[in-house]
C-alpha cells in the first residue's frame, strides 16, 4: 500500500527534522513525505532537493496561515504521487515506530477501510539537551482526552467532536468523499472539528486505531490562546453558520470570563469587547507545557 505522509509547516524546522528522523525509524515504509510550507521559503529551499520528499509552497493569507487549504494541497500532491494511503501528521508530532503499520492495517481491513482513521497522541515533556530519545517514546502515556485503544485494537464509531488533525489517515476514496477541508477556515481553530463533522455527514465513521501513536513535541502555548482570539472568533462564526453551534467552547468561555468577548444579540455572534484590545496586549496568560 503506497503510503504518503503529509505535514504542513510554518517554522518549527527543528520539530520537522525530528519528525523526519522518527519517520525513518518506521517499521513500515513511507514512500513519500509531502511537506506543505506555508509562507516559509527557507523550508522550501531546505527540502526541495531531498529524496522522496515533495515540497509544496503556499503563501499566507491576509487573515493568517491557510491550514485547511494547506492540508488540501498536501493531499493533492500525495495523490499525484500515487498514494494509496494518506497519513496527516502535525509538524509537532513524532510518529511512533508502529504508526504507519497500524494505519495501513486499518486501511486494509474491510471493516475500517472506509473510516476516518485516528491514532492516539501522547504529549512529550520538554526535551533535554540531547533531544528526545526516539527509542523510548512509547514510555509516554497518550493524552486522556481522546480514546487510546491498545496495539491491535480499534474503536469504531467514534465521536466526530473528538477528531483532531494532529494525526489521522484516510484512503483516497475516503478523502474524496469528505471533499477535503473547508478552505474558508484560515488561521487557528475549528477547521479540524468541521472536517470531522463533514466526514460524519458524508456517512464516514471515525475509528480510533491502537498502535498508531504519535508523540507531540513540547512547545510553550498560551492558555487561553490570546494570540489566536481573532482567528477563533472568525472561524468559530463560520463553524456556527455551518453546524448551528459554536466549537472551542472552553476557549470561548475563557475569553468571555476575562471580558475579552461578549455575545452580540444583534449580530447573534461573539464579538470582541471594547476593552479587549488592552487585555489582549497586556492581560495575564498562562503557559502550559503541551498543546496544539
From TrEMBL:
The keyword Cytoplasm does not apply. Keywords: Glycosyltransferase, Transferase. InterPro entries: Nucleotide-diphossugar_trans. Residues 272-292 are annotated as: Disordered. The keyword Transferase applies. Pathway: Cell wall biogenesis; cell wall polysaccharide biosynthesis. PANTHER family: GALACTOFURANOSYLTRANSFERASE GLFT2, RHAMNOSYLTRANSFERASE WBBL. Belongs to the glycosyltransferase 2 family. This is Glycosyltransferase. It comes from Microlunatus aurantiacus.
Amino acid at each position: 500500500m503506497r503510503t504518503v505522509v503529509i505535514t504542513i509547516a510554518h517554522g518549527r524546522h527543528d520539530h520537522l527534522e525530528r519528525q523526519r528522523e522518527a519517520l525513518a525509524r518506521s517499521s513500515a515504509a513511507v514512500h513519500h513525505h509531502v511537506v506543505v510550507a506555508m509562507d516559509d521559503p527557507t523550508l522550501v529551499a531546505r527540502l526541495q532537493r531531498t529524496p522522496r520528499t515533495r515540497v509544496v509552497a503556499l503563501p499566507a493569507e491576509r487573515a493568517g496561515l491557510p491550514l485547511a487549504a494547506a492540508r488540501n494541497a498536501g493531499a493533492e500532491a500525495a495523490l499525484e504521487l500515487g498514494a494509496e494511503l494518506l497519513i496527516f501528521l502535525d509538524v509537532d508530532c513524532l510518529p511512533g515506530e508502529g504508526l504507519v503499520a497500524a494505519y495501513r492495517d486499518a486501511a486494509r481491513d474491510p471493516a475500517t477501510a472506509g473510516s476516518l482513521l485516528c491514532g492516539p497522541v501522547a504529549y512529550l515533556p520538554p526535551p533535554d539537551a540531547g533531544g528526545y530519545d526516539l527509542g523510548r517514546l512509547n514510555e509516554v502515556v497518550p493524552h486522556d482526552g481522546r480514546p487510546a485503544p491498545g496495539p491491535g485494537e480499534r474503536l469504531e464509531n467514534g465521536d466526530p467532536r473528538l477528531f483532531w488533525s494532529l494525526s489521522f489517515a484516510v484512503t483516497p476514496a475516503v478523502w474524496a468523499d469528505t471533499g477535503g477541508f473547508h478552505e474558508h477556515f484560515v488561521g487557528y481553530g475549528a477547521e479540524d472539528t468541521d472536517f470531522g463533522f463533514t466526514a460524519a455527514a458524508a456517512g464516514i465513521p471515525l475509528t480510533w486505531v491502537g498502535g498508531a501513536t504519535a508523540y507531540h513535541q513540547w512547545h510553550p502555548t498560551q492558555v487561553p490562546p490570546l494570540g489566536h482570539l481573532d482567528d477563533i472568533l472568525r472561524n468559530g462564526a463560520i463553524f456556527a453558520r455551518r453546524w448551528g453551534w459554536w466549537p472551542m467552547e472552553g476557549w470561548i468561555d475563557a475569553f468571555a470570563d476575562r471580558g475579552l468577548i461578549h455575545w452580540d444579540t444583534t449580530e447573534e455572534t461573539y464579538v470582541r469587547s471594547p476593552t479587549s484590545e488592552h487585555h489582549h496586549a497586556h492581560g495575564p496568560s498562562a503557559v502550559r507545557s503541551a498543546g496544539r
